[in-house]
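Q: How would the C-alpha cells look for this protein?
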Amino acid sequence: MENALYAALGWMFGLLSALVLEWNRRARTVAALRKAVAFECAEIAYRLANVVYGLSIRLGKADPELLNWLSEAYGRYHGRHRNPTVIETMAKLAANPEQACKDMETLRRNSPDKKPILQKYPAPALEAARLALSDLSKDDLLEVLEMLTLLSIFDRLVDDSREHFKMTFDQEASESNRIAIETNLNQTYAQALSVARQIVDLAHSYIARVG
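A: Here is the predicted structure in C-alpha cell form.
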C-alpha cells in the first residue's frame, strides 16, 4: 500500500516539476519576446519619426505642436542610430517654432517637385508575438495587434503612394489629370503622416509600459 502511495506521490511531484519547468520556459520566452518587441518598436518609431518630418515639410504641415512631438520622438530614441546633433536641432526648432515653421515652408517652396519615397518596415518580432498570443498579457495582446494593424495600413499607403508617384511621370496625362494625381498623392501622404504618428505614439506607449 505504501509503495503505491509513494509511487503516486512520485508521479504527482514529477508532473508538477514538469509543469513548473514548462511555465518557467514559457515565462522566459515571453520576457525575451517582449524585449525584442520593445527593441523593434523603438527602431520603427525612430524611422517613422523621420517619415513624419519629411512629410510635414512636403505637405506644409509644420506647426508648434508637431515640432514638439518630433523633438520628443527623437529624444526618446536610444538605439545605435541616435544622433545627438539631430536631437539638439529638433529641440531648438521646437523652442523657436515660428521661425522653424517659416524655414520649413521655405524649404518646401524651394523644392516643389521633391516627393518623399515611402517604404515598408518589416516587424518580425511583432509577427512572432502575434503567433504567441496565448502567452501574452491582455495589454500586450491589444498593443501588438493594434501595432500590426497600423503597420498594415501604412504598408497599403506605401503601395498607393508609389502608384501615384509613378503616374506623375506620365507625359501624356492632361493637365486636369496631373492635378488629380498630385492631389491623390498628397492625400495619401497626409494619411501616411497620420498613421505614422499613431504608430510612433503606440510604440512609445509599449516601450514605457514594458520597460
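The radius of gyration is 24 Å.

The chain has one domain: 2-112+121-210.

Upvote if useful.
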